[in-house]
Amino acid sequence: xxxxxxxxxxxxxxxxxxxxxxxxxxxxxxxxxxxxxxxxxxxxxxxxxxxxxxxxxxxxxxxxxxxxxxxxxxxxxxxxxxxxxxxxxxxxxxxxxxxxxxxxxxxxxxxxxxxxxxxxxxxxxxxxxxxxxxxxxxxxxxxxxxxxxxxxxxxxxxxxxxxxxxxxxxxxxxxxxxxxxxxxxxxxxxxxxxxxxxxxxxxxxxxxxxxxxxxxxxxxxxxxxxxxxxxxxxxxxxxxxxxxx
Length: 245
Prior knowledge:
The chain has 245 residues and is an alpha/beta fold. Helices cover 24% and strands 22% of the residues.
């Protein structure tokens, strides 16, 4: 049945059947997660940096890594993106995303895939969203390297939960072996490892401070253009300054 044939009752029942939802999406008057502990999330997050993303995405291809229920995929289609692909490893989220896109009448492709497998797409994208994923990964820097090598053609919108010092300081090109005090400075790049669980989620593995998030992006070859929201960085694919293996 197409979106036009869905009644409010049918949408509500299907939304309940597909729950629980992490993203609150307004499906023609039916909210999917109205009691979210962060409020109207991720809409309240999006409003803080929406102006930093091109308002006109006409002709552009978009990849949303870790798309969840497709909130950002839908927002990108609202801005006229020619094609939007959302990937996630959780079938529950993908089913939610497909339903949300259908109800709202947007043509979005969804695929079950890990960020580690994006080379299989054999295509690069004008805009990549990589939000709320890094800290769930066992190998976060590998993920950024793979995005750079196999998917990024232009802009990257990156977001990570951050903990620790909010500042950042210039780092030297090198430090002598005898230098140890720099590692005790709060604004030195730090990636905190969570051995067990954080916020009731045992997939929260790594929590960077702001300096670390910025350093990881630069190390992977991305130039940071702006930081419009505390956890969000707008980046552009640049040149790598190292020749790693």
